[in-house]
Amino acid sequence: MEQNNQQEKLSLLAKKCIDNLGNPNPRQRSQAAQELGKLGVTAAVPALIETLKYDVNTYVRTACAEALGHIGDIKAIFPLIDAMHDSCSFVRRSAAIALGQLQAKESQGVLLQALEDPNFYVRRAAINAIGKLGISDMGALLLPLLDTSDPRIQRTVITAMRRLQTQEGVPQMVHMLEAYMEYPSPRDLPIVKSLVITLGDLGAEEAVPVLMKIVQGYVGARSLAAKALGEIGDPRAGTALLAVLADKSTNLQLATLKSLGHLHYQQAAPEVRRFFKSPDPRLRRIAALTAGQLQDEIAKPLLLQMAYEDPSSLVRPAAIEALGEMDDPALLPELLPLVDDANAYLRAALSDTLSRLNDGRPEIQHALAQLSEDKIEHVSTAAKRAIDRLEPEKPQSPSPPPPKKEFPAWFRKLLGRI
To answer: Do domains 11-115 and 299-390 have the same CATH topology?
Structure first.
């Protein structure tokens, strides 16, 4: 009943806003369009399209373009493409943003034309929209714009190429990053961050040397560089990452621990264990997970102790998860008693760990069956998934032989004459 009342109120509000698109006051029309965009009312799309096409007020047309982008109905694509030729730059900019939100591949031509728009903000919106279309070939068309002197355009292009996974841009972006490293300046930090994030996301091995320099000395971008090195996965980064673990920045330490785990950099194991006693539960949690990824044998008893005794409700499940990476069924007797632990996050993590370490003993099946009946939904769901993984795949029954092809009588007679 309550839900029906809410739907009725929403419907009445939407109708009022649609009616207000015809209000003689342009401020009322603009506010009505904005409200319809927030409500996401699909039924308002035809009225918004009509207003976008014919309203004399630029602010109203701009609000309609924005609303159509928020609603996300594909019927708005071609009217928005038409709006890219509007005489007002505000409308063109909002139309470009909306086309990006709709991921309208049909708009690639008009968006490429908008790269020559006389208005800076329209050009920037077009670049951003191109990045959202998902057409990988278009990334290469943005490369020349990296040479512009405006860092705002450069950042927008870099972000678009990251979204489009434009590998062709890697050499130029690495060169840009190296140039910024020669003369570091706080004003360049935003574009340096964009470059670091993009090169990490693209898995650019060519960027590893300069990223190693950044992680050791470019204040403001070190944590991002540490994360990027982990994403790229080049073992050369291990020494640089290990060196910065002693830094006092918690964010840098967290990012570095995660990346050392991604790299499986075994030499880091003793330093990782040092964080098990950190006063910061975030560091203890990530250190535990990293030790699991490194399969650090020496860490096993320490992780068991964390699983039982750590004061943080989020560190204890991480220790359980890390033990699941160890591939050591000898840990099972220590883990099985935790099936009755009060921490629901721990019980959920326990299911996965038990299934990973399973050696066929019946106690595992019993524990998972108990967890599958847990009152907490995410715990029971995790246990059921674990049980499914343990069940052997059912052999597929052989396919029946294809039916024999019957030839027509005239064809059989013909064969008999040959």
So the answer is: yes
- Residues in CB range of 18: below 8 A, 6 or more apart: 32, 36, 41, 43, 44, 47
| Number of C-beta neighbours around residue 397 at 10 A | 6
* Percent composition of the chain: helix, strand, coil (DSSP 3-state, to 5): 75, 0, 25
Q: Classify domain 299-390 at the CATH class level.
A: mainly alpha
Measured on CA atoms in the order 188, 189, 192, 193, is the torsion positive or negative? negative
Q: How many residues does the chain have?
A: 418
Three-state SS at 51 = helix
Record: fold of 11-115: Leucine-rich Repeat Variant (1.25.10)
Query: Torsion angle, CA of 288/289/291/294, rounded to 10 degrees?
Result: 180
Distances (CA, A) of 191 to 66, 229, 366: 27, 18, 55
Q: What does DSSP assign to residue 205?
A: G
Radius of gyration for the alpha carbons in the chain, expressed in angstroms and rounded: 30
- The secondary structure element, H or E, covering residue 306 is helix 300-309
9 alpha carbon, distance to own chain's centre = 35
Residue (of 185, 120, 193) closest to 162 by Cα position: 193
The 10s digit of each residue's pLDDT in 297-348 is 999 999 999 999 999 999 999 999 999 999 999 999 999 999 999 999 999 9
Quickly count: other Cβ atoms within 10 Å of residue 123's Cβ.
Answer: 22
Give the angle subtended at the CA of 53 by the CAs of 51 and 54, to the nearest 5°.
Answer: 70
pTM flag (> 0.90)? no
| Those residues with Cβ within 8 angstroms of residue 324's Cβ, 6 or more apart along the chain or in another chain | 292, 349, 352, 353, 356, 357
